[in-house]
Design goal:
With 95 residues, the chain is α+β, with helices and mostly antiparallel strands. The protein has one domain. It is 42% helix and 19% strand. It has a three-stranded antiparallel β-sheet with strand order 1-2-3. The longest helix is centred in the first third of the chain and has 23 residues. The radius of gyration is 17 Å and the shape is elongated. The relative contact order is 0.15.
Length: 95
């Protein structure tokens, strides 16, 4: 019985994501990339590559730091570190 409830809950989440994707429908590819960059805290100049699957609302980003991440509309993610985003080491404070 619990498994059935979990499946129903997952189905509801998928339907909700689908509704968000449909709502986004007219959003351009560049706007989706900008949203993904904002979610991960990455500047577009630090991207080596990007790909958008408009059917699923998924954006794939490849950063200068060599990190490959996938973002979906409405998904909350952890921001990338400076090294992951730019490939540059963290700056040490001078004392």
């Amino acid at each position: 019985m619990e498994q059935g409830a979990k499946i129903m809950e997952q189905g509801a989440k998928i339907m909700e994501q689908g509704a968000k994707i449909m709502e986004q429908g007219a959003k351009s590819m560049e706007a989706m990339v900008a949203d993904a960059c904002k979610a991960y805290g990455v500047k577009e100049k630090d991207l080596l590559g990007r790909r958008v699957d408009e059917q699923t609302g998924t954006v794939i980003l490849l950063t200068r730091g060599g990190k490959r991440v996938a973002w979906r509309l409405g998904r909350e993610v952890q921001k990338l570190t400076r090294v992951e985003a730019t490939g540059e080491p963290e700056q040490k404070s001078k004392k």
